[in-house]
């Protein structure tokens, strides 16, 4: 049994980790930390876990995280980088669901997250937690910076078009028009995400610049092997869970004869969590609710030169905690679907 | 033109006052105070008011509230009682939408609101702002404690049964099973009313005791002329605006022959904002969305001894700001519907 | 492996059966019938099932339901009673999720469902599918009329108070104020349950009489061993899944010394799917979303003579398909939790 | 007083016309037709209108529409073209909210609406009901084909960039990523727009081709004076009212020095219902809820070559019934804001 610690169990990615790990047959939840709620049963804060998770929140000191095999950080940005060096030194693997180990360039991190990176040396070692791109590296890693929710959907939607220097599409004019449910903002007391503010309402935000943009650009450029540029417009939509990314890519003359449906189907044929829908489909976010699946549809309206790629994911599962469990499975040599064989909840 | 000041314009009752008063032909909005947002245009915080309200938030000092004819307090509990004495002394009428002047007994106030009442002498003078009960007293008042959102719906639903010592129903076993939209909790940063918490979710709260219970009991007892007891169970339902109160009353033997439909219709025949629906109706909250109307339906299932009364209101209008404008109209001798002739928004 | 047939797989209870049964280790889904959609893959209608359910809809004729071990009817009222006799004669067990075998009196059935009962003889044999009441009878049955969604929550909320002629509460003045999510109305094209009608809206319905009332009265009377009378007021609330029942019961003088919290805890101590919450709790519908669990809280406001019992369930799981799987487990001697060990989805 | 008839008063655009016209000081509602509901009071179907609209539905025969000054068609496609010739011949002005008189080419109409156009001669006469483009023509017209909901937002968002042959942006690669609330689908019994289907769900639809695409292309081409091509991807989002269009336009070299914020502000300076937001804004759909206002924000991320224009409107008001009242005002020489001076409902 893998001994698991969770730092920061009071947010949505924390409770989602607990939902999934509590049914994972190879895992023991050894500690869930929250300095503020120490002593309270986790299931008192989240009654959905009554009967499934018996552990109480503990302080980081009590938690003895160094005795864990792996520690997940479901914390605000900046927490993981403060604790990771000591845990790694003790032989504990670290999976950070926040942004501390996503961006390779510490200057970029500082620019977007407004804090200095305290262990830039670990950035080089950290593996980006997107299994469909980095499966082998993840398997051998001891430190993972999990892919963000938007970046996961955008990268998986463009991956087959860009990989390995492909010249099928224009790489400097990509557009990602993304729509996220409100849980993506986390379980923080804020006016903007109140029910009476975000309900029956739709808006764009972060058009001037969003933290996920450099992550997406870094990821796509790495996939492509050359710089890729993209305009990213995120929107807030009144659903609880779910991201729908609508991606626009201009087909280059070299790509005009491509069977894009086939390209996507073949690329993802062996992927356990990427489902290429039949031609003409329009995937719904609820078709992946509660599951680690991503569903993708490829459109070429009027058989013209613009590709429209539709991607849906559950931002808390494939966009966060589910993907983190997938990565853990890889790190410990377990079957990739272990603990993630959950049928989406529809309706 | 009546010169109006609004203290606390950044919450839902504040913006709702502005929506209504900005179209009220006899009113000038002289000042909207917010110490925190002083200098910001009101319409910058609430873009729905662009083109309708040109005023900026001001500090209380700048606002010169003493030059107003009337000041509305759309503030947390405790603010109005601190400022009312000075305003009243300057000849300004005061309408408090919070609870400072609702409960007649300062000890009760202290028990439920956890603060000492600083001007208990004014409690005796203050008139309870429920026009259907206190129309004449309101017209002559200079200080109003507006009825709360739940209490308005419960009192209007039971008024015809209890008024003036009527013996139609048992008065010690009343039940009010009430459901409120989330805006009732205000525009405060809190986890419990986040979209991802309150959305797609339903729960009771405050079963042990809710601040509106003593207000309802005081109001009903005053209406009846004798003590009335009631069990109050509020629930949070995922709508933005709206309260639906389902009221249960046992018919006394003396009441069995009563035509309750007729009783309600006659009682409310002249009321501009109370609509008794045809027999058999089940009113919807959206049928009053954005309006000052209350709709009531009276049921007697199986022609038995239990009355079931259904009441809907918009908690921000008849349950708060609309009713406050109605009260202002009465205080200044204006037609009661002035500024409130708004068709509900459906769908 | 138990060979399972599902008649009527295009509604919400159908897709919910498929969600649960597709992960049930002792079951093979042999056929899902839909005359209208015959030939279409089930996962084409419900993409959430892609990768989990590979079967296509078949006509009843193709389906060869007589070769199944058990057939679930997730159909409109009237379908099961037409097909059950033949299936039972062929040795197939039948579990009806509709109302055909709920009411024991065919005249009552005809009154509420506006159709004659075509096999009244089977009504006597049919066992009411509420495991917490009828566990042993279910285990030996070949025909089950599953409990309705509202009746499940109301009966489980009152069971400990009424069982075996207990005299703790008044049995003629019970009130069930129930609130249901919109999926309870089924996946039928109707104006009243459109998003733009039922969204941001709350209303009562069926106050004059609802089909679940005779079922609740029959069930409670059977539990009590004497007639029980109840006023039932259902409401439609804008959530997808979930029922919240608020039950009101007057305590009899004989019941005043009872420790009701303890009574409920002891009664349900061994029940796998009934969770009595700690004293003072207010259970949320989302705490059981997607799961077969019912959560109950017992309140006695002001330590008076009125009990307020709060019950939450997922209407599509414990209120329908999950409970049907629970019943199937009992009928086939399987562990009761088999296939139902699902953590609720929160948020 | 203008005598108004409404054909088809049972849908959302019908009830919205009634909401607005019932408070319009220069209008008498003479008839609201519905063959199916003839005899029923309009306010019985829509209780929100109780006290505001006293008329009952009538059959078209009873309605004597020829005695009206103007008749609105709030009907399915095909109804207006059947009745318009006779009404026009009788001197009645006609405003069609459906698509019968939008497309100039009858072959295009037939292609997209699957019915032959029965009065193609009137197509040439009909004026496209988008006041910001056709104000003068509308004022002199007797037949209007109102602009559709999506087309209104897209055309207003691009108008300042394209008018009169401007060469600021590329005109063949425009993208309109649009998101609509569910009321846009109308008040029709359909599975896809049920609360339990469209709630907590987000999806694209009509990617292969949507009826509003030819209307948008025709409109933009007319504005520009040369063919304009656009990719249109509509999405369904779980809100009741509201459209958010996110428009993407490549800046041509000739346009690079343009101050786009100023361009938009100047173009719309005199428009009563178009609000250009301050630079950097992200307009919310709720900021126009219930009002005829459109709000627009212009972004140029990273000061690059892609313009991102955000447009919000209430699809039932500016996207349908409100704009129809605006057009009626123009046709009858009334102030354009008459009856439309409504503050948006927020929250």
How does this model look, in words?
Four copies of one chain form a homotetramer. In chain A, 31% of the residues lie in helices and 20% in strands. The first copy, chain A, has 347 residues and is of the alpha/beta class. The first copy, chain A, has two domains: 2-125, NAD(P)-binding Rossmann-like Domain (Rossmann fold, 3-Layer(aba) Sandwich), CATH 3.40.50.720; 150-314, Dihydrodipicolinate Reductase, domain 2 (2-Layer Sandwich), CATH 3.30.360. In chain A, the strands form two sheets. The first copy, chain A, has a seven-stranded parallel β-sheet with strand order 3-2-1-4-5-7-6, sandwiched between helices. The first copy, chain A, has a seven-stranded mixed β-sheet with strand order 9-10-8-11-14-13-12. In chain A, helix 1 packs across helix 12 and helix 7 packs parallel to helix 12. The first copy, chain A, is globular and about 60 Å long. Chain A starts with a strand and ends in a 16-residue tail after the last helix. The model of chain A has no long low-confidence stretch (mean pLDDT 97). At the A-C interface, helix 1 of A face helix 1 of C.
Can you lay out the helices and strands and say which pair or pack?
The structure is a homotetramer of 347-residue chains.
Chain A: E1 2-7, H1 12-21, E2 27-33, H2 42-45, E3 57-58, H3 60-63, E4 70-73, H4 79-89, E5 93-96, H5 106-113, H6 120-125, E6 127-129, H7 131-139, E7 143-146, H8 149-162, E8 174-180, H9 195-198, E9 203-204, H10 212-224, E10 230-236, E11 243-250, H11 260-267, E12 274-276, E13 294-299, E14 306-313, H12 317-331
Parallel strand pairs in A: 1-2, 1-4, 2-3, 4-5, 5-7, 6-7, 8-10, 12-13
Antiparallel strand pairs in A: 8-11, 9-10, 11-14, 13-14
Helix pairs in contact in A: 1-12, 7-12, 8-10
